[in-house]
TrEMBL record:
UniProt keyword terms in alphabetical order: Membrane, Transmembrane, Transmembrane helix
Subcellular location per the Swiss-Prot or TrEMBL entry: Membrane
Protein topology in the membrane: Multi-pass membrane protein
Name by which UniProt lists this protein: Sodium-independent sulfate anion transporter
Domain STAS stretches: 484-561
Single GO cellular component term: membrane
Organism this protein belongs to: Scylla paramamosain
Source domain of life: Eukaryota
Keyword field contains Nucleotide-binding: no
Length: 635
């Protein structure tokens, strides 16, 4: 009978899960395209076309530049710029996000791509996708919450400075290798005498033009007004498109200048492999100087990058989704599904690790995108560029690409957050600057670990050393102390038990003078563990040896069960009247097994009284009948 009942319950659970999985709600949740596609119209098409073209003009020069940051040839940046657009259209839940290569992902790829071998970058992309997708399946998105905003700000700012410093050599027309910010500036000053003035002039001019064009979109002249004529509207939109498409315009103009000049005037990008990438499985082995490196050794060489890159990818994408959610709730799990598939399928077209791009997402949003379908236009534009324009990309000057990268990352330095963090909580400056300095002068991945470690240390210190308020409660006639009230401000668990025990003891021998009754207010205790119970038992024994009364009040049923499991005799008061009764009993040395005030004034609980489950309901807080409290000591 029991076996049949168990079989039926398991069967019911499986059927319920199956019905939920194959429901219409789950379909809309896990395949968001089914929500907006039936409502798609011409207005949406117009907005998506304009936004898609604008983002496409932005991602092409950025993709080429970010490939160089990753230490790879420019074509890999373009390979990374289209598959994410296509996949996110089906799985993405935020209309504004664009998935592709980013500055931070590129520098992290450079960190872990052994000897600039593209096979490592592609494998990293595939493994990152697998890990992100698996994390979504296991609902591990909550782990991201352990990385605080100050840590993210410190990491992002340090990464931006690292990326900008790595581009100085291209800006000055120099050629050297550097692995850190200090080394980048050291090598720059060592080789400053070899600066190519043509590259430096073109690079600085590109930076100035890019920054001016960036501000153009914020001017009133680009804002369409309701009473504008058709021609004025077109003119304003053209100025806006010029502003958001500034990277492509500057790169095209610089390429034309380089094409018209002598071949050795500027340092050029050089030949780029033409055509679309082959659709094939990611490399699970590679070659190094004639020696084949197998999958296990490749993974070993990549090391911590297998964890760090997916983590940063999730962080960037979810942070961007939250920023552009427009007040809506973000489904972090669905975003992880989408991002994981973007990387998995991207690896089949030789992509480097990708994530959401803040700058392109901002362009997408301000361009009036209506649905994720704008990604199709962006992806197709990149595909067309790969198919037909790659022979002309070799004329793009490296100084201009460096200018594009520098202008993209300088706005990632979150200097404006330092003041608000200081005002909100000064202690948060420690993880902020700890992360920033470690990332800047050591390694980016270690900076995140240091920041998270500092945050956890601060949290654990707060748990282990909670604030304890101690007050002396006077008699009603104010002729002397009634009792000493000790109020711990957080839970009673093993890290904090020694501290709380010490503070209660200190109150007992200090304000209570080893004779006045001490009352421990347990209203902030949500639970108790074995170590804490042992600590409280020792505390009760200390008071008993001094013949000093100790009373616990506002004890929840769960905490009461825990205390009663080890402590033979413990006094628990359920109201201020019961505390008064305890005081009178202690004063007259008439403490018995049960003391009554009314029906039940106070109860001395013993394990011999029976099942702890039968103990009373949630204890009432001490009410207004409590005598006046006079603060005595606040440790």
């Amino acid at each position: 009978m029991n076996q049949n009942s168990n079989t039926r319950s398991v069967s019911d659970i499986v059927q319920a899960r199956a019905r939920k999985f194959f429901s219409k709600k789950t379909l809309h949740q896990r395949l968001p395209i089914t929500q907006w596609l039936p409502k798609y119209n011409l207005e949406s098409l117009e907005g998506d076309m304009v936004a898609g073209l604008t983002v496409g003009l932005t991602v092409i020069p950025q993709g080429i530049a970010y490939a160089l940051v990753a230490g790879l040839t420019p074509n890999y940046g373009l390979y990374s710029a289209f598959m994410g657009c296509f996949v996110y259209m089906f799985l993405g839940s935020c209309k504004d996000i664009t998935i592709g290569p980013t500055a931070i992902m590129s520098i992290m790829t450079h960190e872990y791509s052994v000897d600039k071998n593209p096979d490592y970058a592609i494998l990293l992309c595939f493994l990152s996708g697998i890990i992100i997708f698996a994390a979504a399946v296991c609902n591990l998105g909550f782990l991201i919450t352990f990385i605080s905003k100050p840590v993210i700000a410190g990491f992002t700012s340090a990464a931006a400075i690292s990326i900008a410093s790595s581009q100085l050599k291209g800006l000055f027309g120099l050629s050297y290798q550097s692995e850190s910010v200090i080394e980048a500036f050291s090598k720059l000053f060592e080789n400053i005498g070899d600066t190519r003035w043509q590259d430096l002039t073109l690079g600085l001019c590109s930076i100035v033009v890019l920054l001016l064009m960036r501000k153009l979109k914020d001017l009133k002249i680009t804002k369409v007004q309701p009473d504008d004529s058709t021609y004025v509207r077109i003119g304003r939109k053209m100025l806006f498109l010029i502003s958001v498409g500034r990277n492509a315009i500057v790169v095209i103009v610089a390429g034309i200048i380089a094409f018209a000049a002598k071949s050795d005037t500027f340092t050029l990008t050089g030949d780029i492999e033409a055509g679309l990438p082959a659709f094939k499985a990611p490399p699970f082995s590679t070659w190094d100087n004639g020696t084949e490196i197998y999958f296990s050794e490749m993974v070993s060489n990549v090391g911590a990058g297998i964890i760090i890159i997916p983590l940063i990818s999730i962080l960037e994408s979810i942070a961007i989704a939250s920023a552009f959610a427009g007040g809506k709730t973000i489904d972090a799990t669905q975003e992880m599904y989408a991002l994981g598939m973007c990387n998995i399928l991207g690896a089949f077209v030789q992509s480097i690790p990708v994530t959401g791009s803040f700058s392109r997402t901002a362009v997408n949003s301000t361009s009036g995108v209506k649905t994720p379908a704008g990604g199709i236009v962006t992806g197709l534009l990149v595909v067309l560029a790969l198919a037909f324009l790659t022979p002309y990309f070799k004329y793009i000057p490296k100084a201009t690409l460096s200018a594009v990268i520098i202008c993209a990352v300088i706005f990632m330095v979150e200097y404006e957050t330092v003041r608000p963090i200081w005002k909100a909580r000064q202690l948060d400056q420690i993880p902020l600057w700890g992360t920033f300095l470690t990332c800047l002068f050591w390694k980016l991945e270690f900076g995140i670990l240091v920041g998270v470690g500092i945050n956890l240390a601060i949290l654990l210190y707060g748990v282990a050393r909670p604030k304890v308020n101690v007050s002396t409660v006077l008699r009603k006639d104010e002729s002397g102390p009634h009792y000493v009230l000790v109020e711990p401000r957080s839970g009673l668990f093993f890290p904090s038990v020694d501290h709380i025990r010490g503070q209660v003891t200190k109150a007992g021998v200090g304000p209570a003078e080893s004779s006045v009754m001490v009352v421990v207010d347990c209203k902030h205790f949500t639970g108790i563990d074995y170590t804490a119970t042992k600590g409280m038992k020792s505390l009760c024994q200390d008071f008993e040896r001094r013949h000093q009364p100790l009373v616990f009040t506002n004890v929840t049923p769960g905490v009461e069960r825990g205390l009663c499991s080890l402590i033979d005799d413990i006094v628990i008061a359920r109201s201020s009247d019961q505390i008064d009764a305890a005081y009178k009993s202690a004063s007259s040395n008439a403490v018995a097994e049960n003391l009554y005030s009314g029906d039940e004034a106070i109860r001395r609980v013993s394990r011999s009284e029976g099942d702890p489950e039968s103990l009373g309901p949630l204890l009432e807080p001490m009410n207004s009948a409590r005598p006046i409290i006079v603060p005595a000591h606040n440790p």
